[in-house]
Structure formats: C-alpha cells, structure tokens
Amino acid sequence: MLPQYIYCYRDSENTCPLVSSYVLTMGGYRMVFGLSWLYHYLVMPYYLDVSSLVSGILGIVFFCDYLLFKVSKRSTLSHMCLSVDDTIREAEEAARDIVAGEAILLEQPSTPRGVAPEKFGKSFAEVELSTDVVIYHRVC
After folding, report:
1. Alpha-carbon distance 81 to 6, whole Å?
2. Rounded CA separation 125/131 (Å)
C-alpha cells in the first residue's frame, strides 16, 4: 500500500473518486488485518507471528496517517516517505546508467559531510579537491 500512499501524497490535488476509493478500501482492509493480528497478540500470546504483527501495526500507522492527510492536508509521515522514494528513484537511475555504460555525474555537496578535515590537522580550505564533479565509468 505504500506506493499508493506515496502517489496520493505527491498528487494531493487529485479529485478522482476511483483513486480515493481504492486507497481507502485497501487501506481499510490492511487496518482490519492489523487489528486482527493485534487481537491475536493480546488474546492468544502463545500464537505469535512477529512479521504479521509488525506488518499489521505498520499498516495501521500508515493508514491513520493517510486519513490524517486526507482530512487535514498534513501528514507526519509524508515527508519521510517522499524523501525515501526520491532516494530510491535516484539510485535506480544511477544503476541503469551503470548498466548502460554511461558516465555518472556526482556533484560535490555544498557543505562538507562526513569527517571534518580539521580532524586530520588541515582546515577545509587547505584540503585540495581534484575536481568539483566526479565521473565514474564502467570498467570492462
């Protein structure tokens, strides 16, 4: 259901009743599934399927967040979901470029990340960078 939620987060102005009906129906089903496993956990602790319980709880959380998004146009999980989706999309494009044998351009970040050069005894201005853009090629 996460791809459907991400689609709805990205296209919040979509008024198509078919999309909303599908997401509400499937999300409601996942919520009932989660409540069922929560009931199993509370009433029958000897019968425990951890993966189903975790999946059910996540289904409840995401569906409640989606309902909050539909009602109040704000969401606590939408920013995280969209940033993870964008990162996965960028990684997929980079993997396709590598397979196709095309060069990948990686830009240097505007602010240094990782271990600060000062930890090695030199200021950031003294550290010589070979180029602003790193180009990787496929090695045959």
Report:
1. 7
2. 14
SS3 105: strand
pLDDT per residue, tens digit, the chain (140 aa), is 778 888 888 877 777 788 888 888 888 888 888 888 888 888 887 877 788 878 888 888 888 888 888 888 888 888 888 888 888 888 888 888 888 876 655 555 555 555 554 544 545 554 445 444 555 555 54
Q: What is the 3-state secondary structure (H, E, C) of 31-100?
A: HHHHHHHHHHHHHCCCCCCHHHHHHHHHHHHHHHHHHHHHHHCCCCCHHHHHHHHHHHHHHHHHHHHHHH
Cβ neighbours of residue 49 closer than 8 Å, sequence gap 6 or more: 37, 40
> Which residue, chain included where needed, has tokens 């990948």?
104
CA torsion through residues 114, 117, 118, 119, sign: positive
**Angle between helices 17-43 and 2-10 in degrees, nearest 10:** 140
The model carries a pTM of 0.59
